[in-house]
Amino acid sequence: MQALIDKIKSQIQLSPKAEAYLFSIGKVKEYPKGTILIRQGQAVNKTFYVTGGCLRSFCVDKNGKEHTLQFAIENWWISDYIAIHNHELATLTVACITDSKLIEFDAKALNHILTLFPEYEPFQRYILERHLVSLHKRILNQLQLTATERYDLFLKQYPNIEQSTRNYYIASYLGITQESLSRIRAKKA
């Protein structure tokens, strides 16, 4: 938990009361590989900060095909923000693809920090902007880059993920088949 507090303090001045509040609402937890934290179709009230391991968020379409939206590695946040902010059931499933260490927050309590401690707002804005930029880049990459170029960017963004995740997850993140991913890897080798 202290690492997250230090990260926040590197961005903003955080009062001792705000720091104590974060400690009071954050729960450090460890989950084994395969744990489902949020299941598509269920109520969502948690958000997670990753201190170790790797998670992914994905949806399953009406044909049963999985589409990976995000991988979350150390220092990343993950949840189903559509469900939280629109007060809907989960549109995504969030699962641990490795043994993972997380800080779990009640989403309402974390959001309430902005009311209690306005000094936290610039950090929250920074996180939201970073998330928005990441999603916009991902959309533009899907529209403009070849599968090979998207794979190269993926390896730069997640340099050690290939050893700990299934090819199917990577292919679904890139928007290609597993066979196409195998061909790309073969050409690179």
From TrEMBL:
Signal peptide limits: none
Superkingdom of source: Bacteria
Start and end residues of each Cyclic nucleotide-binding domain: 29-114
UniProt cross-references to InterPro entries, sorted A to Z: cNMP-bd_dom, cNMP-bd_dom_sf, RmlC-like_jellyroll
Descriptive protein name: Crp/Fnr family transcriptional regulator
Source organism of the structure: Putridiphycobacter roseus
